[in-house]
């Protein structure tokens, strides 16, 4: 069954390889409303696609997900074509497109590693659940809890994407002080999200699991771990937004190193030690995640707090520099565009 689902979901992987760059491209220009409206339309179509294809089983459900993603992609491409928002940055394809990939890869690879390191940790937790005393209930409860944390993650993730764009734009405009203010405000609201998650998880610990199952064993594990999940979000929300700030300063390697150290050098040993050596069991795995999130949030906030924003603004000018003519000197891309506008 899982194989069938994954096979029918493969087109969605290809579609998202185009969809996500377009979203980032628009977001970098502060064009957000079309993305929101396209996503809303895709969500509504997703319901219709599921109703039409659910009778075909898991393959139909996966195909519905791919179809909804494709509809969002088509809507965004249509918006680009009609609005002409791409004209200011679009150039005809040429051999030059095959050059200067190294700086992009140096930024993209650590960003990818940073996200993968965090999410792989959750997958490892599921595998470790299979080694506990009651593996069936543990794996099921872990699935519910990971689905819950994914739901909560949407909010700090969205804020992280927004602050990444904001910080990047401010630094690119050589306004380090405003970039710092954006980072501070975002981290503050991330902390508010974290406290809200704690309240939600604690208040719903006896009722949340019943939305998924009536099995008492699964409900017992879910209820015991939900307050710990809430505490994890108290660290996860600031660190997720912190990652966005760091990405905005073009330092994704910092986020990758922090995630590697926090999740695998701190969280993993604590989780394994508590769950198996001290026989805490299922909650021990989540206490390991809690230690990782606290460590990750602390390191990320330290990196943001010690950032020299004026230096980062100057660095942004160098990162966006272009070779100008025969003199061999480099000028900021922004200055070049301004000169062209006024010439």
UniProtKB/TrEMBL annotation:
One GO-annotated biological process of the protein: xenobiotic detoxification by transmembrane export across the plasma membrane
One Pfam family of this chain: MatE
Spans traversing the lipid bilayer: 35-54, 61-82, 144-163, 183-203, 257-278, 284-305
Keywords: Membrane, Transmembrane, Transmembrane helix
Topology relative to the membrane: Multi-pass membrane protein
CDD domains: MATE_eukaryotic (cd13132)
GO molecular function, one term: transmembrane transporter activity
Compartments, as annotated in UniProt: Membrane
Transferase found in the keyword field: no
Keyword Signal belongs to the record: no
GO cellular component: membrane
Family named by the database record: Belongs to the multi antimicrobial extrusion (MATE) (TC 2.A.66.1) family.
PANTHER family for the chain: MULTIDRUG RESISTANCE PROTEIN
Protein's name in the database: Protein DETOXIFICATION
Native source species: Glycine max (Soybean)
Lineage: Eukaryota, Viridiplantae, Streptophyta, Embryophyta, Tracheophyta
Name of the coding gene: LOC100798432
């Amino acid at each position: 069954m899982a194989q069938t689902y994954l096979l029918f979901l493969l087109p969605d992987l290809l579609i998202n390889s185009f969809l996500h760059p377009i979203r980032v491209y628009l977001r970098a220009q502060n064009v957000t409303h079309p993305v929101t409206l396209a996503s809303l339309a895709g969500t509504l179509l997703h319901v219709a696609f599921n109703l039409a294809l659910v009778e075909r089983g898991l393959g139909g459900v996966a195909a519905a997900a791919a179809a909804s993603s494709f509809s969002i992609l088509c809507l965004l491409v249509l918006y680009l074509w009609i609005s002409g928002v791409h004209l200011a940055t679009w150039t005809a394809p040429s051999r030059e497109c095959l050059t200067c990939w190294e700086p992009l890869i140096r930024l993209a690879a650590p960003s990818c590693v940073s996200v993968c390191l965090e999410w792989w940790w959750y997958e490892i937790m599921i595998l470790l659940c299979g080694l506990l005393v009651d593996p069936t209930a543990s794996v099921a409860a872990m699935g519910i809890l990971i689905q819950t944390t994914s739901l909560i993650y949407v909010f700090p993730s969205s804020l992280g994407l927004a602050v990444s764009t904001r910080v990047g734009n401010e630094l690119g405009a050589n306004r380090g002080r405003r970039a710092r203010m954006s980072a501070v405000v975002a981290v503050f609201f991330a902390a508010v999200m974290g406290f809200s998650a704690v309240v939600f998880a604690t208040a719903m610990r006896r009722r949340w699991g019943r939305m998924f199952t009536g099995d008492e064993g699964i409900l017992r594990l879910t209820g015991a771990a939900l307050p710990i999940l809430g505490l994890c979000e108290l660290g996860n929300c600031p660190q997720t937004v912190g990652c966005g700030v760091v990405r905005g300063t073009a330092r994704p390697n910092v986020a990758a190193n922090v995630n590697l150290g926090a999740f695998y050098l701190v969280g993993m040993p604590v989780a394994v030690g508590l769950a198996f050596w001290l026989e805490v069991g299922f909650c021990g795995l989540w206490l390991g995640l809690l230690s990782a999130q606290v460590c990750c949030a602390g390191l990320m906030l330290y990196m943001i707090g010690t950032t020299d924003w004026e230096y980062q603004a100057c660095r942004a000018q160098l990162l966006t520099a272009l070779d100008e003519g025969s003199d061999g000197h480099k000028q900021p891309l922004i200055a070049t565009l301004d000169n062209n506008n006024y010439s």
